[in-house]
Write the structure tokens for this entry.
Amino acid sequence: MFKVVEPVFSKDEITITRGEILKEESNRIKIVKTLVWGYPEGGRGSNVKSVLENLEVLRDKLGPSTWSKLLYFFEISINSHRRQIFDKRVEQSLNASQFRDFNKKEGKWNQKKVDDFFKYIEKLDEVSRDLRVAPEQLENFLFYYNLYFKL
């Protein structure tokens, strides 16, 4: 059983950036920082707390949203597509149907479906190339702004 016992942060209040997590060399610390960054208020239920207390439960306690964050920060590519975060908020943004580039032919986007994750990272790569922006910039737009952007 592995437990996080050494202190990761030295202050009561912290700011964590994507860049800081990407530069982190310790895999254990990277996982902890990803969870704190992705769930600053603790997430749903006690899942994040359980994982922080025992990293062995990763595969049993975490959902697709968290896995997409871990894939992102560990810089794992899938089918030559750069990994991107696909969480509930990005799902809601895509389903707002603001941009036809992200409209699905059948049904709504669902971050819990593996096929939708693959389609999302492929589409994000394609659209970001067309717009000449980094996929991270487009994902940030979908997360932070698209739900409040009105055409």
